[in-house]
């Protein structure tokens, strides 16, 4: 972790009125995953983690997914007519976080993390263009790559990529990620 | 057929819509009386580009007629106008008739033919409709259709004739232009401040302005009782026949072409003949400096000349220079003394191109009462001018240093392809147009603000407009999909970086709070 505050600091990021934010929820999940990696109490079991890592487009739902959704994610976030779709998106995100357990860093933009890890521009563009099942596949590749490089990243950016796939908001989120990717790429190239 | 037909003084040839919504046919004296009464809403057959010559014509004849009788207010009685106008033509009623068979007599805007007959004077019949006569050069059917007037009325001919005779420039050998224009390819812009933009309000105001400016012009270079209507004198088109300016009334109605109308069983015929020189002597040396009450004079290091508006028209940069820079001598109609409320700056011209028309430009800039008050104080006007200039510079910085490089970065998409201005012109022009839209309103609003607050607000406005144009470019410009994100990131990076560097107040704000009513400039 490059964040000197440590994982515990992430758990307190709630709004003043106690409402959970995506940042606080992901922080809490990441902390739980990291406790497992460090063999501490209160973490997920190795079995749960393995289940999450095995999530695929064919088998998105596992008991571990439901447990995490129930324990950490406010019900309103996944409720609604498109509940299936939202659950699949959460499944993909948790799969990526499980593969990269211990690497969540809210202060490291996903774009710059990918650039620094050497993720090619071609793959990066493919990631930003992908939607639905293709995006799930890209996210799997990306998380395996980040894991192999041990590069920390903000998985909140990845969540934005998954949760907003169409419309102006999606465009804005992708542009933010692109901005940090190219800024880092530029500074690496000009070194 | 009668010897004379279509008499503007006696025949109700002009269709008007009155402010009480009634439609009537008026004689010229009735038009002048109704204008003095502010009772005219519009002239039905008048085309938009013909409004300027028509307004100038009405004001000029009114100013001349009134001056000769020492009248200070325009009469509201048409009978009085009738005799005033007749007198202006030295009692020759044919001078106000469109068709006069006897070519040794003047007809409306048509000088007598000293040669005796049209044949001897080599007049030709090659003008088929008022469209041919008018000054609009419409080579293609893009903006305005050619040959629109299939069944022209007398009114259409009258307006086209007036537009040609008082607005046209040089159009090849034998076709010389007016004196109130700098160079044969220039134009005759009309600019003025007026308390109202209706026909009547502008008429009354401009007649008063012309009356006030008259003594200086007659002292300088005109004859107080000189030629008022240039077409009342015979003209053979030769160099020696050119009319010296000092023999004319300062507001004389000039003409530039030899024309004669006849009426046959087929209708009106318009005959024309070439000339060997300008109607007014020494036009080339004049540089358009005729004391025209509506035209600003440009003074650069070498010489003075009357303003020629470019095809860009009256954009904010141009108007800013005319209003505030010391390089322009303001026309008489810019004097707002005696007007208490707000005023409108009206600017109109038809820009002539070579072999084409470069657009009819018309702009009205409202100036609220507080600005009008500032305008009459030289020190406040100077300060306002400085602020305006700073704002033009900020807009230019956005254009040149921020938006343009960002658009180039976007189109280059990380490659090294050379980007021409034409490639980004769409968004640059849209930026300019948006700045133009808000420039003066924002400037007027800023006068009560501290300089730094005003600058902050303007930089914010400019930043928002520039950013919106970049967004529009991102959305609409074709980018190779593989380099799309790189292109967008580069362009945004360039934009934000440059904005932070050049928009100093917006991104390095000091402790600025909006001041409600400082009357910063008003107090000057």
TrEMBL record, chain A:
Pfam families, alphabetized: CRISPR_Cse2
InterPro entries: CRISPR-assoc_prot_Cse2 (IPR013382), Cse2_sf (IPR038287)
CDD domains named in the record: Cse2_I-E (cd09731)
Protein name, per record: Type I-E CRISPR-associated protein Cse2/CasB
Organism domain of life: Bacteria
TrEMBL record, chain B:
UniProt xrefs under InterPro entries: CRISPR-assoc_prot_Cse1
Top-rank taxon, per record: Bacteria
NCBIfam families: casA_cse1
Listed name of the protein: Type I-E CRISPR-associated protein Cse1/CasA
């Amino acid at each position: 972790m490059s964040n000197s505050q440590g994982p515990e600091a992430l758990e307190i990021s709630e709004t003043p009125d106690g409402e959970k934010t995506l940042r606080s929820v992901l922080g809490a999940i990441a902390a739980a995953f990291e406790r497992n990696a460090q063999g501490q109490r209160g973490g997920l079991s190795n079995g749960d983690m393995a289940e999450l890592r095995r999530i695929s487009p064919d088998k998105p739902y596992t008991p571990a997914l439901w447990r995490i959704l129930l324990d950490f994610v406010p019900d309103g976030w996944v409720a609604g007519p498109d509940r299936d779709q939202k659950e699949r998106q959460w499944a993909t995100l948790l799969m990526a976080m499980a593969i990269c357990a211990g690497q969540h860093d809210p202060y490291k933009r996903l774009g710059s993390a990918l650039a620094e890890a050497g993720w090619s521009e071609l793959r990066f563009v493919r990631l930003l263009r992908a939607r639905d099942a293709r995006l799930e596949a890209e996210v799997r590749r990306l998380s395996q790559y980040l894991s192999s490089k041990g590069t920390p990243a903000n998985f909140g950016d990845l969540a934005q990529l998954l949760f907003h796939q169409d419309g102006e908001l999606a465009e804005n989120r992708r542009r933010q990620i692109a901005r940090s990717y190219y800024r880092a790429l530029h500074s690496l190239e000009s070194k | 057929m009668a010897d004379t037909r279509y008499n503007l003084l006696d025949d109700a040839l002009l269709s008007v819509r009155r402010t009480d919504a009634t439609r009537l046919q008026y004689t010229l004296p009735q038009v002048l009386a109704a204008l003095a009464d502010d009772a005219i809403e519009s002239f039905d057959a008048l085309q938009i580009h013909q409004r300027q010559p028509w307004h100038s014509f009405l004001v000029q004849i009114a100013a001349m007629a009134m001056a000769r009788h020492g009248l200070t207010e325009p009469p509201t009685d048409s009978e009085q106008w009738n005799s005033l106008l007749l007198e202006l033509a030295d009692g020759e009623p044919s001078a106000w008739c469109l068709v006069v068979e006897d070519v040794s007599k003047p007809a409306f805007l048509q000088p007598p033919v000293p040669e005796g007959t049209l044949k001897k004077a080599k007049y030709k019949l090659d003008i088929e409709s008022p469209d041919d006569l008018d000054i609009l050069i419409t080579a293609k059917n893009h903006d305005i259709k050619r040959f629109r007037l299939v069944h022209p009325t007398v009114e259409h001919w009258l307006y086209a004739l007036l537009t040609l005779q008082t607005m046209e420039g040089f159009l090849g050998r034998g076709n010389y232009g007016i004196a109130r224009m700098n160079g044969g390819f220039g134009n005759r812009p009309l600019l003025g401040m007026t308390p109202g933009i209706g026909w009547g309000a502008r008429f009354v105001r401009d007649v008063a302005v012309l009356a006030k400016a008259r003594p200086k012009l007659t002292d300088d270079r005109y004859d107080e009782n000189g030629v008022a209507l240039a077409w009342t004198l015979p003209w053979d088109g030769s160099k020696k026949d050119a009319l010296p300016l000092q023999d004319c009334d300062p507001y004389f109605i000039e003409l530039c072409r030899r024309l004669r109308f006849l009426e046959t069983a087929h209708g009106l015929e318009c005959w024309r003949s070439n000339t060997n020189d300008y109607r007014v002597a020494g036009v080339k040396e004049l540089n358009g400096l005729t004391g025209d009450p509506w035209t600003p004079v440009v003074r650069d290091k070498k010489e003075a000349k009357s303003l020629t508006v470019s095809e860009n028209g009256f954009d904010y940069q141009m108007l800013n220079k005319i209003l505030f820079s010391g390089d322009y001598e303001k026309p008489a109609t810019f004097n707002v003394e005696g007007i208490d409320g707000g005023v409108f700056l009206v600017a109109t011209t038809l820009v002539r191109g070579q072999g084409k028309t470069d657009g009819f430009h018309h702009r009205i800039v409202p100036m609220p009462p507080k600005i009008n008050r500032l305008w009459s104080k030289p020190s406040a006007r100077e300060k306002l001018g400085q602020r305006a200039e700073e704002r033009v510079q900020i807009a230019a910085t956005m254009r040149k240093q921020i938006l343009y490089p960002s658009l180039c970065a976007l189109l280059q998409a990380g490659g090294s392809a050379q980007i021409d201005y034409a490639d980004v012109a769409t968004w640059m022009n849209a930026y300019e147009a948006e700045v133009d839209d808000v420039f003066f309103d924002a400037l007027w609003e800023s006068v009560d603000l501290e300089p730094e607050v005003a600058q902050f607000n303007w930089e914010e406005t400019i930043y928002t407009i520039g950013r919106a144009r970049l967004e529009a470019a991102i959305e609409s410009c074709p980018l190779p999909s593989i380099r799309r994100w790189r292109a967008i990131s580069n362009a945004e990076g360039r934009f934000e970086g440059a904005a932070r560097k050049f928009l100093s107040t917006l991104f390095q704000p000091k402790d600025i709070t909006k001041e409600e009513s400082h009357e910063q400039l008003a107090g000057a």
